[in-house]
Amino acid sequence: MKLETERLFIPLLTLPQLRLWASDIQTLETELHCKYDAEPIEGEFLNIINGQIKIIENDPLNYMYHSFWLVIRKSDGTVVGSMDFKNIPSKMKEIEIGYGLGKKYEHNGYMAEAVEKLCEWALTDEKMRTIIAETEIDNRASKRVLERCGFKKYKEEKTAWWKLNKTTRE
Predict the structure, then answer these.
(1) pTM for this one?
(2) Strand ranges (E), the chain
(3) Which CATH architecture has domain 2-169?
(4) Per-residue confidence in pLDDT tens, the chain, 170 aa
């Protein structure tokens, strides 16, 4: 599955591609005809990817909620970021989104463009009515992404929580 905007390709990684992302990025680049230049695949981020691989192995029918979407710039095939859902939709039809962008690609509108497209697609799914996101309170860039995509802050404690409802998008 692949989403597309004016400037971006946004493919959903299959399980084999997710494994390559975690272990052999050069082969993934060849397969997707891209050059990876986003957030480094190491430390906690690598642990998250490997955890998602295990979840998909146990729940292959819901892989679209457990895998990652790469954000690839059309102009030169550069992977500038990634996005994911953090789990399957809840019984309340709520799902959490996460995203990350390579530092040198900030302030170009790529993440807002990608998040908006993913949310637009997600809210056409009858299993999803609300998309939520968590940000650090002082993360102004992430706040701007969410605001540009129509999210509204609904809770602030140690972190800020944002919500986008299907009804507000119609």
Answers:
(1) 0.93
(2) 2-4, 8-11, 35-36, 68-73, 78-85, 94-101, 130-136, 152-156, 159-165
(3) 3-Layer(aba) Sandwich (3.40)
(4) 899 999 999 999 999 999 999 999 999 999 999 999 998 899 999 999 999 999 999 999 999 999 999 999 999 999 999 999 999 999 999 999 999 999 999 999 999 999 999 999 999 989 899 999 999 999 999 999 999 999 999 999 999 999 999 876 54
